[in-house]
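User: Teach me something about this protein's shape.
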Amino acid sequence: MTRHDLPAGVRLGNAPVSYGVYGEGAGGAGASPEALLTSMAEAGYEGTELGPPGFFGTPRQTAAALAGHGLAAVGAYIPVHYALGDDVVAYDMERMERTCRELAACAEQSGEQPLAILADEGSQVLLENPARAWDDRRLALDEAGWDRLARLSERAVALARSYGLRPSFHPHISTYIESPWEVDRLLELTEVGLTLDTGHVRLAGGDPVGCLRRWRERVDHVHIKDVRVAVLQRAKDEGRKDFDEWWADVCVPFGSGDVDVDAFLTELLAGGYRDWLLVEQDRAPTSAADYPQVAAEQAANRAWLARRAAAAPAGPPG
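Assistant: First, the predicted structure itself:
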């Protein structure tokens, strides 16, 4: 299955988190940027999101590494603790600027305009209370919190734009932008685009197809993720506090979870979406011994998604 089977403008990318790279630890001991990029390119992916700041080196080294493997910089996930103290936010914004410099260097080399994918980073309380019921607002932001999030979000948007990047916002489980009603409020208060992640929407109790219809005019990026809701429900029932441990088992290869990816792709492409389809299969840090299996799984994800996207009816470009 090749790129030419897909609707014009649609490209398939992946993200380092699918290979166990995330957070400040950047994947843990043994994480290899070279092996990751080689695996993506060999699987047929055309682009990647960046990992944590500095994972691929300096901005120039990052641009050269991606170009050397024929991969475009799709964007980067940029978390900010919008509800925590000013000192924490300042640290997050400093890391964001480092990421923006990396993306800008890639853009200068490729001529493309990557995404700055903003996300709330929640809090420890929310990590211990994932996927709140859609009508349970006890842990939600109050009005002052919403005002602060809107101000900080616009500040982050302005920073991204100052580097020539496309700002988008990624709703995420165990954060203050988790449930569909929280996404609605974010969109009311800001002008930022929206990254729709099929897995996080499903886990938050939303229907990915219905949410796409609801937010279509703001969706400018898509993460395709399949998840097993039972893993989340079991963690909730057991009152588990070790989010990173159980979360590593939530995301699964395409076709083995509870997201109707075919229905989502049909709605997305029929509506004229012509941009990146970004694969994400969050996992725990990958050991060197397990890496070949992980790389093979991501190659299979790419082949599966390419077949489904090529078969979906496509409407005129939006």
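Now, about its shape. The longest strand covers residues 72-80. The domain at 3-311 is CATH 3.20.20.150 (TIM Barrel). If you'd like, I can walk through any region in more detail.
User: That's plenty for now, thanks!
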